[in-house]
């Protein structure tokens, strides 16, 4: 990601979170806790799956900053891993991307 795109994504992210900071924090805490609980309690979670989720941070930042318009391949892979490991998790792609960033 070029420095200009990264700066733009960071600026959009900061502007979008200022308007609803408390709901963002609440959502991030809730989804983050659910993901952490799922990954920690899952005995079949491989380190490869965890690496896929961690590698998606940059794509997740772009996704959140663009309000879902920019979907990277790393994020798509991470969302598939998360949904496969926690099928009962009721979260939108945006909420999961925010949780990946908070991790």
From TrEMBL:
Organism, as annotated: Pseudomonas flexibilis
Taxonomy, superkingdom: Bacteria
Signal peptide feature range: 1-21
One of the Pfam families matching this protein, by short name: DUF2388
Record key words, sorted: ATP-binding, Helicase, Hydrolase, Nucleotide-binding, Signal
Name this protein carries in UniProt: Holliday junction resolvasome, helicase subunit
Keyword Iron: no
Annotated transmembrane regions: none
MF GO annotations: helicase activity
């Amino acid at each position: 990601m070029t420095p200009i795109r990264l700066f733009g994504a960071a600026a959009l992210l900061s502007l979008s979170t200022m308007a609803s900071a408390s709901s963002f924090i609440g959502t991030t805490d809730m989804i983050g806790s659910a993901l952490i609980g799922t990954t920690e309690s899952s005995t079949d979670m491989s380190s490869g799956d965890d690496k896929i989720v961690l590698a998606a941070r940059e794509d997740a930042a772009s996704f959140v900053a663009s309000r879902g318009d920019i979907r990277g391949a790393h994020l798509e892979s991470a969302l598939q891993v998360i949904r496969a490991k926690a099928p009962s998790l009721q979260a939108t792609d945006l909420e999961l991307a925010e949780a990946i960033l908070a991790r």
